[in-house]
Amino acid sequence: MLKIVQETAQQVLEIVPALMHTIRAEFRSQRSGDLSVAQFRTLAYIKNNDGASLSSLATHIGLTLPSMSKLIDGLVSRGLVTRSADQEDRRKICLCLTVTGKDELESAYEHTQAFLVSKISDLTKEDLDTVSRSMQILRGLFVIDHLENSTLKIKK
Questions:
Q1: pLDDT (tens digit per residue) in 110-146
Q2: Are residues 130 and 69 in the same domain?
Q3: Across the chain, how many H-helices and E-strands are there?
Q4: Domain count of the fold of the chain
Q5: Which residue stretches of 99-143 are H helix?
Q6: pLDDT over 70 for what percent of the chain?
Q7: pTM of the entire structure?
Q8: What is the pLDDT of residue 75?
Q9: What is the pLDDT at residue 33?
């Protein structure tokens, strides 16, 4: 059993970076609204965490606070994100998407999804079911852990 677990872990380590590289390359080739991958991820995080703080966003994206602040400055100047003071703690900044930000994110997401559809469209129904089931299993293992870890970091 240990051998198959190790082999499976090795496959995940090989395929996930290759998959992300392919998605990033396609994303960059289209440059929906001239968004970078980091900007896209930032908009997606804010969409899913309305009123997010700069520190929780920086932790999620993997940037330092000064770098995250600079990235947010650019998104604010483009009218994609708004900054406002937290109602309970005026020292804290809350980030929200504007309508334009939501539109840019949706456009980039739709393009990326269309690319993925084109990549997997020739798979058999059985293979699609296998991929889908594998994604569900991985989501259960990693997305929940990621959300729990993010929640812990946000509460600090």
A1: 988 999 999 999 999 999 999 999 999 999 998 865 5
A2: no
A3: 7, 3
A4: 2
A5: 99-120, 125-138
A6: 90
A7: 0.74
A8: 97
A9: 58
Nearest partner of 52 among 89, 86, 101, judged by Cα: 86
The parent domain of residue 144 ranges over 123-156
Question: Residue 48's pLDDT is what?
Answer: 93
Q: What is the DSSP letter of 37?
A: H
Residue 71: how many CB atoms within 10 A of its CB?
Answer: 21
Q: Give the span between the Cα atoms of 36 and 27, in whole angstroms.
A: 8
Residues 50 and 108 in one domain: yes
User: Bridge-partner residues for 97, per DSSP?
Assistant: 81
Name the nearest CA neighbour of 134 among 26, 11, 6.
11
**Is residue 130 one of the residues assigned to a domain?**
yes
* Sign (positive or negative) of CA dihedral 94, 97, 99, 101: positive
Within a domain: residue 17?
Answer: no
